[in-house]
Design a protein that fits this description.
alpha+beta; 12% strand; 4 domains; single chain; four-stranded antiparallel beta sheet; five-stranded mixed beta sheet; Alpha-Beta Plaits; globular
Length: 558
């Protein structure tokens, strides 16, 4: 049988959900069930091993199972993810929410106004007895809608692939439930001292970057350009000659010139009159919605303002390994380039990946560095070629690259040309993918994450789709395998995971984790992708080099 289920729950910032009720509809028969949970000693409905359990954004349902300590259903399918796959990422409305999708298929639903009213009831800290029946009826309405949606998309769903994604959601529910261990005292001190932190940051920045702030505290664009010129940092300009001062420009320039990072952090701190609000639970764990399948490529899309790994890098110091525990930040090395090489079959690119550093390897091929150059000997040249390699895979041309790197159009054109001339097979593959989709075809990953062309689709958005979506799939398989093997993943990052381990025996566990991650990369992409590791020892804090100067400036305050 197939069950469409839905929970209603309260979710306080940083806490596990507090479920109010669970409702379900049997798709084949229309039979309905409801269960009030809060304050009651109840058990979940029993599902047979061959039953399908549906949820729209099914991670929410699985986090409720996790919070209640219930055994999760054997076979879980997310109708949100499967609708995205069935439609090839072509939206029918402004979003992928249940009501929007159902209405696009002509399925009758409750009004948006009624949904908003009942969500307010569900999200409250308590539910009045008189509201219980209406809340469960509202919950059942979502189950009915999801059941009808499944009838429409089921013929288009590859069940093994859909169940693979469901296994990932079950694993991710445990990840979200564990949360990221944090130093709650440090978080509270930072909040209490925020006005002083802002003042101290500006004073320290003025010493590092003389002339960049006026006496009244305002930022000086002219002073900034002078500092950049004196320190040989080419800064992107508007056609008018004024410096580009947006967040993305600072982010891109700081990648190549790390000395800019402190100013980037300073401007962000000074722009925020109130301290960052961390979603901190009572158990000193950071939790927020991880939003799987939130992007067209299938990657997670947690809120940058709520997720510690989406915030400014210096704030990662709030992460602290608990007593007796070690945290391991394990990231795939040059994952996107490795995947591009494997999928395209470009032997030159594969050779450069196997060389260990594809960015220096391309610089050598372009005669931009000597044959014995390394990341340490030529960091700025490597950064320029890394920006080129990753940028052109996204469809970046010479003009945008010149702005990103602060170099002339001619030099940027030479960088792009170097990539195209050395990786000809990759470019043939990429161009053929774009042509195929724009002519009505579809492309999909090993596990079926699919893309088609919509009315507003541009070729530039298609060229890197398979690389990004395969990268997302690698991480999904890695997290699923790690969780099912008993390893405690506490955070997924773009191409990395944060894992919590017992201090005793952590070396052996780390080796097992890296082996599983390497296997996941090869299974999904067809190429071995190495991993790098940073360890955080018991009671120590997560350190990111990009935040070093910030903490040197404010460390004694907090």
């Amino acid at each position: 049988m197939t069950y469409a289920i839905d929970f209603e729950f309260h979710a306080a910032p940083g806490e596990r959900p507090r479920p109010w009720c669970l409702c379900w509809v049997v798709v084949e028969t229309g039979e309905e069930g409801r269960l009030w949970i809060d304050g009651e000693d109840v058990q979940p409905p029993e599902f047979a091993d061959d039953d399908l359990v549906l949820g729209h954004y099914a991670l929410a349902e699985m986090t409720c199972y996790e919070a209640l300590g219930w055994k999760m259903p054997p076979r879980v399918i997310d109708t949100l993810a499967e609708t995205r796959v069935a439609r090839g990422q072509v939206r029918a409305g402004d979003n992928w929410k249940l009501l929007t999708i159902c209405q696009s298929y002509g399925i009758a639903t409750m009004s948006f106004e009624h949904k908003h009213e009942m969500r307010e009831v569900a999200m409250a800290t308590s539910v009045a007895t008189s509201d219980r029946a209406p809340l469960m009826e509202y919950c059942l309405d979502d189950c009915r809608a999801a059941a009808e949606l499944w009838k429409r998309i089921a013929p288009l769903v590859d069940l093994p692939q859909a169940e693979f994604r469901g296994r990932y959601l079950k694993a991710l529910a445990y990840v979200e439930g564990r949360g990221v261990p944090a130093d709650s005292d440090l978080i509270h001190r930072l909040k209490d001292k925020w006005p002083e932190v802002r003042k101290r940051t500006r004073v320290a920045a003025l010493k590092t970057y003389p002339g960049t702030f006026a006496e009244e505290g305002s930022f000086s664009a002219i002073g900034w350009l002078r500092w950049c010129a004196g320190n040989k940092v080419p800064w992107p300009l508007h056609p008018s000659g004024a410096p580009r001062l947006d967040k993305e420009t600072f982010k891109q320039v700081a990648r190549r010139f790390p000395e800019v990072e402190f100013m980037r952090n300073t401007r962000r701190v000074l722009s925020e009159s109130r301290a960052v609000e961390f979603p901190l639970g009572h158990d000193s764990r950071l939790r927020c919605m991880l939003s799987p399948f939130g992007s067209d490529t299938g990657r997670n899309q947690p809120s940058n303002s709520r997720y510690v790994f989406g915030m400014a890098a210096w704030l990662r110091r709030m992460i602290q390994a608990p007593e007796g525990k070690v945290l391991a930040y394990i990231d795939y090395s040059s994952q996107e380039v490795a995947i591009a090489a494997a999928l395209s079959g470009d032997e030159t690119m594969i050779e450069d990946i196997l060389d260990g550093d594809p960015y220096i390897a391309l610089a050598k091929r372009a005669n931009a560095v000597p044959a014995d150059a390394t990341k340490q000997s030529h960091p700025r040249v490597r950064a320029a070629f890394k920006e080129t390699v990753l940028g052109v895979q996204f469809g970046m041309g010479p003009y945008t690259l010149s702005e990103r790197l602060g170099i002339g159009l001619g030099e940027a054109s030479e960088l792009v040309t170097a990539h195209k001339e050395n990786y000809r097979r990759y470019w043939e593959w990429r161009d053929s993918l774009i042509d195929h989709v724009l002519m009505g075809g579809k492309i999909e990953t090993r596990y079926g994450w699919r893309r088609k062309a919509g009315p507003k689709t541009k070729g530039s958005s298609l060229g890197n789709f398979l690389v990004q979506s395969t990268g997302a799939e690698v991480l999904r398989l890695a997290i699923t395998a790690l969780t099912e093997a008993g390893h405690e993943v506490v955070a997924p990052i773009h191409d990395a995971v944060l894992v919590e381990m017992d201090e005793q025996g952590c070396e052996e566990e780390l080796e097992a984790i890296r082996t599983l991650m390497k296997r996941a990369g090869r299974v999904v992409s067809g190429i071995t992708i190495g991993t790098d590791v940073d360890l955080v020892k018991p009671l120590e804090h997560f350190e990111d080099e990009r935040g070093r100067e910030m903490w040197e400036a404010i460390g004694d305050l907090v």
